[in-house]
Q: What sequence folds into this?
């Protein structure tokens, strides 16, 4: 992707229209990958993002952009391919729950927390950290998620 960049206390980027390119990320950054997805959706030609972030938010953004008319394959995988389009259309879309907020709520409330979610699979289990009182346990009956740990 080609653009002019100006740095004077902040970064300003200008381009008539971006051109696709192969981009290899040193680190699979979520925000960087999302910004590349949005830019590549309207860039001319094909963009390939290698070592892309695999988080559910990246996969969801690819889904949303595809609904808007983008041509994205591999959202949520290590290699994402985008064929640029001339325009995107407005859509209505219900977003996935925020897994970071869910983990924060569990940590803040302690004890037992039940959360009703449509997309239970998007919650991270990475907040289940060993503590002096033991490991947290997780039970997921249908759409009700109950998380508890010993006191």
A:
């Amino acid at each position: 992707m080609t653009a002019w960049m100006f740095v004077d206390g902040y970064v300003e980027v200008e381009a008539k229209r971006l051109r696709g390119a192969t981009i290899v990320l040193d680190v699979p950054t979520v925000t960087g990958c999302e910004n590349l997805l949005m830019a590549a959706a309207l860039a001319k030609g094909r963009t390939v993002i290698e070592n892309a972030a695999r988080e559910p938010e990246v996969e969801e953004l690819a889904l949303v952009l595809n609904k808007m008319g983008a041509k994205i394959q591999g959202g949520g995988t290590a290699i994402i391919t985008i064929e640029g389009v001339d325009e995107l259309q407005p859509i209505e879309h219900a977003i996935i729950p925020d897994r970071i907020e869910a983990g924060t709520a569990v940590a803040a409330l302690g004890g037992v927390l039940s959360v009703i979610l449509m997309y239970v699979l998007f919650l991270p289990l990475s907040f289940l950290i060993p503590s002096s009182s033991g490991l947290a346990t997780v039970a997921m009956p249908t759409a009700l998620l109950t998380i508890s740990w010993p006191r």
